[in-house]
Amino acid sequence: MKTVLLAGGYGTRISEESQYKPKPMIEIGGKPILWHIMKEYSYYGFNEFIICAGYKQYVIKEWFADYFLHNSDITFDFTNGKNEQIVHDQHCEPWKVTVIDTGLNTMTGGRIKRIQKYVGNEPFMMTYGDGVCDVDIKKLIEFHQSHGKIATLTAVMLVQQKGVLDIGGNNAVKSFREKSNNDGAPINAGYMVLNPEIFDYIDGDDTVFEKTPLERLAEEGQLMSYMHKGFWQCMDTKREMITLESYLENGTAPWKKWED
Which residues are within 8 A (CB) of 149 and not within 5 positions of it... i.e. 6 or more apart? Predict the structure, then answer.
């Protein structure tokens, strides 16, 4: 099963970094967050990726073009007037990566529609290129296959950030308490499994996947949620980038299940 990664947005909320590279290429732990997401899927045996690029898409292509070289022990032999390269050992993952320029201003649904021919007529996985999670991918797929609907998204609880107030009719605060995990609301964390019928729900470049397609699927009873109670964190801001970096520095990154 192929994995589609959305990696074409501008990343304006983390412009300190994204002015130089696409947000999915911003590094945590010395590697782009996109690499970390791919390693998650690879851990479960899924090694074929389709990357929907857009903003500064050449950065993604160049990074993968150099990946084998940067992760190999190589002899460069110029003694015979040639540039002969001898690979002694390489440390790359068994990945097949297709990077597609899906346009600079294309919406999320439009990006998915543009890579239809690379997916083919088969179910596929899809997620966003700016968030990591410790969801069990194999259990997610088993859940999707069990219900027979078109789409499954992974849902996580968004924890309330502030204290909770109980306000009476006269605007008096009747009670106050600190937030708890029970105050959260489920949100779409990505990590989706989609049947090929999903392409019929997308009109073109201007389609925002999270609006009309998902709303229509929900209305038709074709959208299911896989509740994940573990770790999930997006990287929309510099603060969130620093948080993810600290997990890696401390050796406590929940999404990092692979061995170095």
Answer: 195, 221, 222, 223, 224
- Please state, as a whole number, how many other Cβ atoms lie within 10 Å of the Cβ of residue 21: 17
In 148-237, where does DSSP find H-type helix? Answer: 212-219
Residue 182 reports pLDDT greater than 60: no
pTM: 0.90
Residue 62 CA to residue 118 CA, distance in Å, equals: 20
CB atoms inside a 10 Å sphere around CB 156: 24
162: confidence class by pLDDT, cuts 50, 70, 90: low
Question: If you count DSSP H runs as helices and E runs as strands, how many of each does the chain have, helices first?
Answer: 8, 16
**CA–CA dist 208, 214 (Å, integer):** 9
Residue 129 and residue 127: Cα distance in Å, rounded?
7
The count of residues in the chain is 260
Over residues 183-187, mean pLDDT: 75
Q: Which amino acid is at 204?
A: G
Tokens describing residue 188: 């779409």
C-alpha dist (Å) from residue 116 to 100, 133, 147, 194: 11, 25, 23, 12
Would residue 30 be called left, alpha or beta, if left means φ above 0 and alpha means ψ between -120 and 50 degrees?
left
What mean pLDDT is predicted for residues 108-122?
Answer: 98
- Determine phi and psi for 99, rounding to 5 degrees: -105, 120
In this structure, are residues 210 and 234 in contact, taking their beta carbons and an 8 Å threshold? no
